[in-house]
Write a structure and sequence with these properties.
alpha/beta, TIM Barrel, binds 1,3-dihydroxyacetonephosphate, two-stranded antiparallel sheet, globular, 12 helices, eight-stranded parallel β-barrel
């Protein structure tokens, strides 16, 4: 597999229905996931869990990239093979989360600004040496009453654009993730409005900074009602509104859009992606970069026990295949078994 340019790397990750396994939980977030199954979040347990995921047979042909956390990109599997090599052996590209989390936004402390631009160039050059081919930076936008402020959108999108440029200068593909959170009781129309504003601001900022769009992947939220909204939209409505929002705001030369799952159920994440690909008529590949929606079933099967590894791997493999089919508009609920 010889991928030399940013365009080739980006196109490879989303080729033939492939998507991304987001396994870049920070140690505190991984701790929360492990708490839910009563497993201690030690370095060894995090390694064992992720090694198990990366060695699942369903990684092959379904997963084009894996996003790692700093700890994981430096770890070796039990037999001494680097986890980066384990991922490559499955035909997937290693990626790395490079943002350094959220800080309260000056002037609007209920909102956040993603940190990590300081020293980013040097960190990127090290990650490139460690084998990373792409990177992720997550900006968070919260809907609540009058929020988000325009300053929250603007400053986060400027940071995303600056990050993307630095990453491309280090020969890796930046994933830009402007996540409008599902938390709250807002309507789907409000999510549409805020998601549109964020995407407009993001692509304007990337153009100003000379980011190569053909060597970039967008990781957006789907347009949904807030998780506490009483009137939840249908699968068809989420698919139509998400597509409309993307068509209005995303340049046609962007190679791939890989959604986050953001707290949607496993099945909804798959059904929404499938519905959009069945509608079709857009210039980009539309695929997945799921964390929870790929891992949840595997985590619950595993429970930290060696004897559960085969069933946990089967659970991940199944979701990876279902989402690959959804990225081709070829999924059906009958396939869920
Ligand atoms: P979820 O799919 O669990 O939202 O995670 C994706 C991700 O990487 C968020 O940054």
């Amino acid at each position: 597999m010889s991928l030399n340019t940013l365009e080739e790397i980006a196109a490879f990750i989303v080729s033939n229905g492939k998507g991304i396994l987001a396994a870049d939980e920070s140690n505190p977030t991984c701790g929360k996931r492990f708490d839910s199954i009563g497993v201690e979040s030690s370095e060894a347990n995090r390694r064992d869990y992720r090694e198990m995921l990366f060695r699942s047979s369903g990684m092959k042909d379904n997963i084009g990239g894996v996003i790692l956390f700093d700890e994981t990109i430096r770890q070796d599997a039990k037999d001494g093979t680097s986890l980066v090599q384990v991922i490559s052996d499955q035909g997937a590209l290693p990626g790395i989360k490079v943002d350094q989390g959220l800080k309260p936004l000056d002037g609007s402390p209920e909102e956040t600004l993603t940190q990590g631009l300081e020293g980013l160039h040097d960190r990127c050059s090290e990650y490139f040496q460690l084998g990373a081919k792409f990177t992720k930076w997550r900006a968070v936008i919260k809907i609540d009453g009058e929020l988000p402020t325009s300053d929250c959108i603007e400053s986060n999108m400027q940071a995303l654009a600056e990050y993307a440029k630095i990453v491309q200068d280090n020969n890796m593909v930046p994933m830009v993730e402007p996540e409008v959170l599902m938390d709250g009781d807002h309507s789907i129309d409000r999510c549409y409005e805020v998601s549109s504003a964020a995407l407009k601001s993001l692509f304007a900022a990337m153009e100003t900074r000379g980011v190569n769009i053909k060597g970039t992947i967008l990781k957006p939220n789907m347009v949904t009602a807030g998780s506490l909204c009483e009137s939840q939209a249908s699968i068809a409505e989420v698919a139509e509104m998400t597509l409309r929002c993307l068509k209005e705001n995303v340049p046609s030369d962007l190679p791939g859009i890989t959604f986050l799952s953001g707290g949607q159920s496993d099945l909804n994440s798959t059904a929404h992606l499938d519905a959009m690909n069945k509608i079709g008529g857009f210039p980009w590949k539309l695929s997945f970069s799921y964390g929870r929606a790929l891992q949840q079933a595997a985590l619950k099967s595993w429970l930290g026990k060696i004897e559960n590894m085969p069933s946990a791997q089967a659970a991940l493999s199944h979701r990876a295949l279902m989402n690959k089919l959804a990225a081709q508009g070829a999924w059906s609920s009958d396939l869920e078994g």
